[in-house]
Design a protein that fits this description.
The chain has 538 residues and is an alpha/beta fold. It has 10 helices and 27 strands.
Length: 538
């Protein structure tokens, strides 16, 4: 057989690695490939765990062709970037392919197409996968088994990767159908998750999708493991007001890096004695901008102060953002904790808990029913309807903190709980009680998320030090802390960068390199191991 550079390996000789191979190692996992990033079963290449080859064939084709190798960019023993050019149709190549690969507890590979031309183009991309399963058996079975990389599900006799259907062929390989990707100028590769401006909008909810299939919930909370979100603004700053320098670029960077969600805050007034001003911009206006400037990241509020807004305004804004973003909105809600805001809005601070419940009920009714009949202390409706309706049968509502509500009420009326950062044992007890209260709700899954302030130090070995609602810590200890949080059942860690002493762009790059591959988003548009609860009716 012949390796990448044409050197002949005699069948009677032991296989050796040549200069044309790239090896990545992390613990008992290692990966050997050619310099293009492809792995071929016929040569000693593949993904290995404890010296057993579990993936033998891994080949990318762009527009039906093998990309031409240009260079390999390696920074760590467990990650590298393969850079290739797509064979040109004319005199010059117009598309570059970057393949960023990580190994650790498995393997992750991110693809980026770089469009060097001045026009958008659509490029078909296909992946071929082959697996050696001869020795990979569950105890007491004779059927080869592999764990699904997204959800940890055991799939007998087949392999399903990155949302591609299982389709094993007679030669033991899986050939994924070719997927067209739209490659725009200026290094932008997108998959169409936001509806086209030319497509009709289902404003009346005639074709709403089931809540159990909610794609943004699946991305943020795949179930059985933790993901990572970011709270705006994505910068470190002293005092209450951020600079907002490069704020959109940071969110786009977070989306590329592998954050599952981004959360905007509702701070209508500046109180210099209380916290900070969040991202300053109105959350609904800001989410409208993010709907257009991002493609797949889940968009959330953390959180809308329900008593300060009329529920019709909140419902109209939320459904509008949901439609504009392609169904990516999660609605974090709160009772409000800044006393100075309530008299400014003519609201009674002491009555905010009851008004919160009234507002949420009103919000639900007008979005989940057609031409509802409403009799509420907050208003009356008859013979009229609120449009648009959301993409799914309802917008997920996640409670922030206790909000002066009984925990049982929260479990019954919210789709998830966003909480703070108490000590680990206390948080474990909170989660255990939450699971007990929500398991009987139709057997569905209601996530539990934790918001944490992070100051990631330059020294990766720095031990954790407590700061306000979070930690100053090096990445090695931070990764260990994240695994501990995942073990007690936290479904998403929502990072607030306000106390970061380093540029957040630098921090995101470090997280993307060393941390986020261990906590990837759920697959957009797929059902996880646990599913959201489907309410009866509309």
């Amino acid at each position: 057989m012949t390796d990448e550079v044409g050197a002949v390996i005699e069948e009677t000789e032991p296989a050796v690695l040549t200069e044309a191979t790239v090896t990545l190692v992390e613990g008992p996992t290692f990966c050997v490939s050619g310099t293009s990033g492809d792995m071929e079963a016929e040569v000693p290449q593949g993904l290995f765990f404890r010296d057993m080859r579990v993936i033998s064939d891994w080949q990318i084709r762009v527009d039906g062709h093998r990309p031409h190798h240009l260079t390999v960019l390696s920074q760590d023993p467990y990650s590298t970037t393969f850079v290739s050019r797509v064979p040109p149709h004319g005199a010059q190549s117009e598309v570059l392919l970057e393949r960023r690969r990580y190994v650790g507890e498995g393997m992750r590979e991110d693809l980026r197409l770089r469009n060097l031309s001045t026009r958008p183009m659509t490029v078909p991309v296909s992946l071929r996968v082959g697996a050696d399963f001869a020795d990979v058996f569950l105890p007491g079975t004779s059927t080869p088994t592999v764990r699904h990389p997204e959800h940890g599900l055991r799939v007998p006799g087949a392999l399903s990767l990155a949302g591609l259907p299982s389709d094993p062929t007679g030669d033991g390989r899986l050939r994924a159908p070719t997927a067209p990707l739209t490659c725009s100028p200026e290094d932008r590769m997108t998959q169409p998750t936001v509806p086209s401006a030319d497509a009709p909008v289902d404003v009346e909810g005639e074709a709403q999708r089931p809540f159990s299939e909610h794609a943004a919930m699946a991305r943020a909370y795949p179930g059985g493991r933790m993901t990572v979100g970011a709270i705006t603004p994505l910068e470190g700053f002293d005092g209450p007001v951020p600079s907002l320098a490069g704020h959109i670029e940071r969110i786009q960077q977070a989306e590329r890096a592998g954050f599952a969600s981004v959360w905007v805050r509702d701070v209508p007034l500046l109180d210099p004695t209380f916290g900070d001003a969040g991202q300053v911009f109105d959350p609904w206006v800001y989410l409208g901008l993010l709907s257009a400037r991002t493609t797949s990241i889940t968009l959330g509020t953390a959180s809308i102060v329900m008593p300060l807004r009329h529920p019709l305004h909140t419902a109209k804004a939320a459904a509008s953002v949901d439609q504009l973003s392609g169904g990516r909105l999660l609605l974090g809600v709160a009772t409000g904790d800044r006393p100075v805001e309530f008299p400014a809005f003519g609201q009674d601070l002491g009555g905010r808990a009851e008004r919160f419940r009234q507002s949420l009920e009103y919000f639900r009714v007008v979005l989940e029913h057609r031409f509802p009949h409403v009799e509420s202390p907050l208003g009356r409706m008859r013979g009229t309807d609120l449009l648009p309706k959301p993409v799914y049968r309802r917008i997920p509502v996640l409670m922030t903190g206790r909000g002066r509500q009984d925990v049982r009420w929260i479990a019954d009326n919210a789709d998830g709980w966003l909480y703070y950062t108490p000590p680990l044992q206390q948080q474990a007890e909170n989660i255990e009680r939450w699971r007990q209260l929500t398991q009987g709700d139709g057997g569905g899954f209601k996530p539990y998320a934790q918001a944490t302030y992070l100051d990631l130090t330059e020294n990766p070995l720095a031990l954790p030090r407590r700061i306000h609602q979070g930690f100053s810590v090096g990445r090695v200890s931070f990764l260990a802390m994240m695994r501990a949080w995942q073990d007690i059942g936290i479904d998403q860690l929502m990072i607030n960068f306000k106390h970061s002493r380093r540029p957040v762009a630098e921090v995101i790059d470090e997280l993307a390199e060393h941390v986020l591959p261990h906590f990837p988003p759920g697959r957009f548009g797929a059902r996880g191991e646990h599913r959201p609860v489907e309410r009866t009716g509309r």
